[in-house]
Amino acid sequence: RGDGYEKALATVEEGLQLAGQSGYGHFVLGFVLCSRGDNENAKTALLKAIELDSDLAHAHYYLALIYLRLQDDPRAMVAMEQTIAADPGYTSAYYSLGTLYARTGRDAEGARMIELFQQLSSATMDEDHYRRLLYRQAVPLATDKQAATHFNLGLVYWRRKELAAALEQFEAALALDSTYAEASHNIGVIYSLQDQHATAHPFLLRAVRHKPDYALAFENIGNNSLALGEYAEAVAAFRRALALDGSMASALDGLGTALIQQGHVAEGRAARVEAAALRAQQ
Q1: Is 2 left (phi over 0), alpha (psi -120 to 50) or beta?
Q2: Where do the CATH 1.25.40.10 domains begin and end in the chain?
Q3: How far is residue 131's CA from residue 13's CA, in Å, rounded to a whole number?
């Protein structure tokens, strides 16, 4: 925008004078024009990009976004479908197309697209994929998708046991979405794993504040409270976790420990026996 926009536009136009048949060049022109809100000229440039290179998935996708701005859902749907045809791995197109289908009454197809979006997101969980999503320039992610991508990248690092890197990504997700319960929970768990139990506690509480049915978070509040010597709070948290999910044998074990620490030895031992029986059934 402003001086930056004019400079970018001049650079792209200069490039197109040298390579006027560059599909990607016309795509970049469309992107720059769109950033200024010049939808009609952006649309013209993107259509030219597709004419020159029909496999340019970014051009189809961004054209769909232009049509959405223009409130032309039918053309937006076609452009999203062409995005997926050009690149079946274009994850965000599935989500957008599913939303469009649902909005126009094609509920079953919409649900299927969202399901495919979720499957594709799960199947492509690796560091390079998520970093490309975060730092790509052609089609920037919306804020909610940036938060989800930071969270997923954090899971990649967590699975590698790179806790510092995982913590950084979960914190980035929470900074973008202050209600992201899973990100807050995972930050609390990492601090607990590092024996920073007092630091962990508010993050775990924040998770259940935003997601009151989060059984795992309640269990970890119980574990955290045990470590802090807050046995009454631990008992309450473990009981809440079990009320939400009665199959959590580890929560029963934790409840037993907390009860014993409070002096309720018989009740605590009974909880541990129940936990052992539950594990035997699983």
Answers
A1: left
A2: 2-124, 178-281
A3: 29
Statement: residue 102 has pLDDT above 60:
yes
Tokens representing residue 28 in the block? 């970049």
Whole-Å CA distances, 233 to 145, 245, 254: 35, 18, 12
**CATH for 2-124, among 1.25.40.10, 3.40.1010.10, 3.40.1790.10, 1.10.1740.10?**
1.25.40.10
For residue 126, what pLDDT band results from cuts at 50, 70 and 90? low
Give 120 or 201, the one with higher predicted confidence.
201
pLDDT in tens, 158-215: 877 889 989 999 999 999 999 999 999 999 999 999 999 999 999 999 999 999 999 9
For residue 101, how many C-alpha atoms fall within 13 Å in the half-sphere facing its CB?
18
Among the residues of 104-142, which ranges form H helices? 107-123, 127-135
Fold of 178-281: 1.25.40
